[in-house]
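Title: Comparing notes on inverse folding

I've been comparing how different people in this forum approach sequence design from structure. To keep things fair, I'm posting one structure and asking everyone to reply with a full sequence. Here's the target:
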């Protein structure tokens, strides 16, 4: 039986269409609030001053590496997960720290310690727990006396790909090269 002007409101179609649109809007809003609260952005910093001081410290470490004429070549073995690195320049620490940093996903970052080979003093060896592929920021840290030096570059990482660190100018220090 069709709704007439004298029938109750709930027997008409238009109030139900309006209520349906409002209910859908509320449900979608609640879903978006849940997504925003659950998936916080890890790439944003709220303390820009501290980040800026960190950049200055980082440039000091990279300048030290440049002064020591450090360069590194590394290879990742896809079968064994071994990382083999050859370091040239004026520093030979017992261990090196290598960080493979994903530009967008912190859970894909990898950190490993490379130990100097007893038979080849320029060679360092470490072990990756799992294969790493794709674009990464490669950071190599070592000690020279009481100071820490740093080689840092963006590289395409994968099995059989040789990573070369220290062969590019220091990013962010362009004014020194003029």
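Reply #1:
Here's my take.
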């Amino acid at each position: 039986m069709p709704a007439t002007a004298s029938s109750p409101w709930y027997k008409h179609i238009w109030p139900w269409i309006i209520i349906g649109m409002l209910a859908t809007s509320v449900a979608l809003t609640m879903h978006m609030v849940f997504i925003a609260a659950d998936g916080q952005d890890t790439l944003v910093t709220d303390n820009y001053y501290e980040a800026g001081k960190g950049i200055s410290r980082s440039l000091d470490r990279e300048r030290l590496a440049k002064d020591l004429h450090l360069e590194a070549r590394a290879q990742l073995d896809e079968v064994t997960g071994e990382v083999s690195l050859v370091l040239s320049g004026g520093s030979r620490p017992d261990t090196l720290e290598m960080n493979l940093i994903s530009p967008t996903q912190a859970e894909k970052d990898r950190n490993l310690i490379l130990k100097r080979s007893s038979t080849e003093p320029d060679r360092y060896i470490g072990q990756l727990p799992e294969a790493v592929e794709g674009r990464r920021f490669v950071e190599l840290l070592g000690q020279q006396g009481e100071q820490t030096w740093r080689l840092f570059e963006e590289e395409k990482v994968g099995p059989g790909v040789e990573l070369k660190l220290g062969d590019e100018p220091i990013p962010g220090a362009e004014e020194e090269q003029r």
